[in-house]
């Protein structure tokens, strides 16, 4: 990996701000569900925070992102406001989708967040189309499609990488390899040791990086963004990480290797990043504590905002099905 | 082709579709075309429906794709989210099965799931229909699946003028439209539409007025219904014939007005009868007109079986003029 795009201190601090928000938001989400204040299907991304924090830092607000059901970290990193997010996952009318999408369908076009899909692999075909739009209009925007390691085994992945390769689309396929596809360990479901190697089959550069390392992840993200903006086509990034919890909140994670999980949690990327920022003099303990306190207070406000927001009226059932409403 | 559309010279359905897309592309730079073999180096489509478009509008807007239906519909959806109006071709209706996730879970639902923040103004063109000995995987009518999917619109023209007008309406519609073309009927000539002619979605057409029985159909078999008129007349049965044109949302107003007059209804389609479009219309009519109908609402479609290869079996599969006449006469006794 080239070091041309190594983040400077200020950039690292911005990445950390996102990571701190994501980590706190996941912890709060699980707490709010556990205490019964909210009911929702929740796919924890704890442990994967660095990947979207660094990726989003390499983008502008105008760039596009398509993510999946385990994607709240992606959305927050890309700039979805907390109030809009929390009201949505609470099913309230002030949610970004008026409560009609929920945690698996978060959408916020104002920050380029175009689709969240609940279908494994389906972020990629749509991301191609958005990127095609950028190619046609020459708006110089990049589209990121995130997905998990499991999604690299579904047909949509292969169709999408091939088309993006043929059309040289300004798209980045960002695989967050957390070593489990739902309940099944990576090596039991995937025929190659490295998903990045699959890029070669489609004439697309494929790079594997330590997604938990903000320096490495940011450099890979920047390189892919520059390639896309230069009209050189797509990049496949395989960002290695680990999912600290089960597939969905409430599932027994007995299928996860205990030692592997403990080692991953001991190497929690967010506190490690934090310690390094202090050790390298990029930020002081007080500065970071202030960032974290602000995040907690923002989340407090968002949760209260969400729970105070009304549920949608029943007439919303048949609104937004079509532009003109549903015929009686 | 596009500049020659006049009222005087008949054109085929194929030419009408081609002209409609060309006129839409000329009028609006955001209209795109993609699909397998659609560009001119690939013959402008396997039967030439999109011939001339890539030459006239360029390779950027008219793109042949890999044989990858998920990728095709995904690309159409994505482009539509950022302001384009893609017309995606899925060569054969049976191939939509390969793209069902993109169509059903995404195209149809993104407007709703995003709370109206995004929408998917795409047209999915697809051809189908028995008659060319294609067997079980190349000519099914699967319109009921899509009509059953909230968020999708479904149209199926039976003639050239409607083919043009429905295509123009479909491209301009802000929501996803499945546009069903019949393969054997592509070369059927008909009255040419004026440039810019629009057939609004959701509007049926009373093709022939009558007093005894309402016959509702769409796509190619509508012409079989017209072919049954002579036999019905000879039997003293006066049929009112409605071309539904749009399957979803269907034109209840026109259908209700007709059935209120005739008191009898036969729905004819090439798809299998069970769980089909006819079932939805029949249930609606029997609820609306319970006690006023002179006979139970009847349906005529294909048997509950895959399309067969052997020619005599294939010929017996879809409703024919003779079977339609027999059913309508029997219903009107």
UniProtKB/TrEMBL annotation, chain A:
BP GO annotations: pyruvate decarboxylation to acetyl-CoA
All residue ranges annotated as the Dehydrogenase E1 component domain in the record: 24-313
Signal sequence segment: none
Keyword Ribosomal protein: no
InterPro entries assigned to the protein according to its UniProt record, in alphabetical order: DH_E1, PDH_E1_Alpha_Subunit, THDP-binding
Names of the cofactor(s): thiamine diphosphate
Superkingdom, natural source: Bacteria
Record's catalysed reaction(s): N(6)-[(R)-lipoyl]-L-lysyl-[protein] + pyruvate + H(+) = N(6)-[(R)-S(8)-acetyldihydrolipoyl]-L-lysyl-[protein] + CO2
Gene3D superfamilies: 3.40.50.970
Protein keywords: Oxidoreductase, Pyruvate, Thiamine pyrophosphate
Gene Ontology MF terms in the entry: pyruvate dehydrogenase (acetyl-transferring) activity
Chain's role: The pyruvate dehydrogenase complex catalyzes the overall conversion of pyruvate to acetyl-CoA and CO(2). It contains multiple copies of three enzymatic components: pyruvate dehydrogenase (E1), dihydrolipoamide acetyltransferase (E2) and lipoamide dehydrogenase (E3).
Protein name, as recorded: Pyruvate dehydrogenase E1 component alpha subunit
Species assigned in the record: Sphingopyxis flava
Higher taxonomy: Bacteria, Pseudomonadati, Pseudomonadota, Alphaproteobacteria, Sphingomonadales
From TrEMBL, chain B:
Pfam families: Transket_pyr, Transketolase_C
Domain Transketolase-like pyrimidine-binding: 11-188
Molecular function GO terms recorded: oxidoreductase activity
Record bears the keyword Transcription: no
Keywords: Oxidoreductase, Pyruvate, Thiamine pyrophosphate
InterPro entries reported for this sequence: THDP-binding, Transketo_C/PFOR_II, Transketolase-like_Pyr-bd, Transketolase_C
Presence of keyword NADP: no
Protein name, entry field: Pyruvate dehydrogenase E1 component beta subunit
UniProt source species: Sphingopyxis flava
